[in-house]
Amino acid sequence: MDWLARMEIMEKISLQILTQTALTILALLLYSGLLRVSRRLIVAYGSQHSISEKRIVYTKKYFRMALFILLLLAITLIWGIDFRGILIFASSLFAVVGIGLFASWSVLSSVTSSVIIFFQFPYRIGDRIHLIDGEDSINGTITDMTLFYIQIETPGGEEIAYPNNLAIQKPIGRLPADKSLALNEDDQRED
């Protein structure tokens, strides 16, 4: 191979690396911008809907993690990393994680449900609710909403941690502020 051919190859490689570097920097800037915008929107939404600070923090973490995964995917596309190797690694990782989470699938379900609850749950901390769950119905006041559970304090002072994944599946009614939380037997017989 002569000297001129080598120079042309070096020039193509240099141009490719420069392009990939510029695209990577652009992806990092886009990630940073989207992260800032999503944080501001989540905080604004949380403030507007009187959502607790802890729930806002949890949701910001979810969005940061999702954006980071998208950033990693973009960088692998930019640099042309072989997807066959990544897919084999990812499928192996998911198999191990799936086996590990199989027995506790409700944990993953509760975490996902907490994001849904953040945006769509019509009840807030301090609301008095009646959670309808067959014979295990619960009356109480919502004291906290965490990553996995909704904390409910019953009229008797008992603290109940109700899983988020069940809370989005069961009907929940809001009790008026002046109504007693304890449903007496006469009220139940009338229904």
How does this structure look, described?
With 191 residues, the protein is α+β, with helices and mostly antiparallel strands. A 5-stranded antiparallel sheet has the order 4-3-2-1-5. A hairpin with a 3-residue loop joins strand 2 and strand 3.
Features:
disordered C terminus, 5-stranded antiparallel beta sheet, elongated, 191 residues, SH3 type barrels, 6 helices, alpha+beta
Question: What is the topology?
Answer:
Layout: H1 3-48, H2 53-78, H3 83-102, H4 105-120, E1 128-131, E2 138-145, E3 149-153, E4 159-163, H5 164-167, E5 172-174, H6 185-190
Antiparallel strand pairs: 1-2, 1-5, 2-3, 3-4
Helix pairs in contact: 1-2
Short précis:
The protein has 191 residues and is α+β, with helices and mostly antiparallel strands.
Give the overall shape, derived from the CA principal axes: elongated
Structural class: alpha+beta
Given as residue ranges, the uncertain stretches (5+ residues, pLDDT < 50) are 179-191
The biggest sheet amounts to: 5 strands, antiparallel
**Number of helices, where a helix is a run of at least 4 consecutive DSSP H or I residues:** 6
Approximate helicity band = 55-70%
- What percent strand? 5-15%
Mean pLDDT: 82
Taking Cα atoms only, what radius of gyration do you get, to the nearest Å?
26 Å
Spell the H/E element sequence.
Answer: HHHHEEEEHEH
